[in-house]
Amino acid sequence: MGLLMQVSALLAGINMVVLIALLFLYAKNMRKITSSFTIGLVLFATFLLVQNALSLFSYGMMYVHFDEVIEPYLVSINVAEAVGLLILYRTTAK
Question: How far is CA 69 from CA 3, 4, 81, 87, in A?
Fold first, then answer.
């Protein structure tokens, strides 16, 4: 596995940790405020967590099929997602 694929996998793992933290915050809010919005936030975090788990799995199992040309794009996608999730977590936790 190349360095950029390892970075992508690490970022997907970080995204999963942030999503789990968000999921706990959203679930806590959902217990207090039962609305379609809070349920939607829980579902959003859950499906994004599943997406990151599948990405991490695919990086580990199919990395030999990824061309080196695509690796910088995968890193860029994971960096953008990590920044967005960290901003969302910071905003939510306040």
Answer: 13, 10, 20, 29
